[in-house]
Amino acid sequence: MSNQTTDIYEVMQTQRAIRRWTDEPVDRDTIERIIQAACWAPSGSNSQPWGFLVVTDDGIRQRLATAIREMFSARFSGDMPNPDDIDDLTTRRMMRGAFNLFDNFAAAPVWIIPCLVRPESPAPSGLLAGSSIYPSIQNLMLAARAEGLGTVLTTPQDGIMDQLRAELNIPDNALPVAMIPMGHPNASFGPVTRKPLHEFLHWNGWND
Questions:
Q1: Does the structure show a pLDDT above 90 at 94?
Q2: C-alpha span between 133 and 44 (Å, rounded)
Q3: Residue 72: Cβ-neighbour burial (10 angstroms; 0-12, 13-18, 19+)
Q4: 98 burial class (0-12, 13-18, 19+ CB within 10 angstroms)?
Q5: Are 41 and 156 in contact (CB under 8 A)?
Q6: What is the pTM of this model?
Q7: Percentage of the residues of the chain whose pLDDT score is greater than 70
Q8: What is the average pLDDT across 37-64?
Q9: Is the dihedral angle over the CA atoms 177, 182, 185, 191 positive or is it negative?
Q10: Euclidean distance between CA atoms 8 and 12, whole angstroms
Q11: What architecture is the 8-199 domain classified under in CATH?
């Protein structure tokens, strides 16, 4: 049964974070279609301030995945908590997801690294910078889901920035803002579970 769908509402309702992938390769044409969809996103004054690094080289992925894992371990001073020992359910799920992801990061056959690109050097960071590129990242992830591919939005790049720039020859005016592993899912897509709409929707004023 194919995982592909072009219905936009089905895509959104079934696009969950995928952290496990098969070793089936993703062909270049499919990757380029997905990046093209990312480039259709709106941007201020149609500035299109983005660049997308696609990493398929096994050696590069292995080296960077090792750096990410070491960075993650260092944040806990080498004493990694057991997710099952964490009382808070949300934190427990987050930590379990992080462990699963970092154990499988290199297994994703494709990494996509969106970068904010500006004429000035270095590229700006912060909320304004994110507002310029995150719509394209959402387009990218939705297009991947439509193609039957699984992704997850991760942001470990700040912790390995020097190595990331050196490994991929990233110029100073390009700021990596995320790392998105992508591949054929070794897990099922949605439907996603969400709280009811009335908990989030407010008409003509913020009402409890």
A1: no
A2: 10
A3: middle
A4: middle
A5: no
A6: 0.85
A7: 80
A8: 94
A9: positive
A10: 6
A11: 3-Layer(aba) Sandwich (3.40)
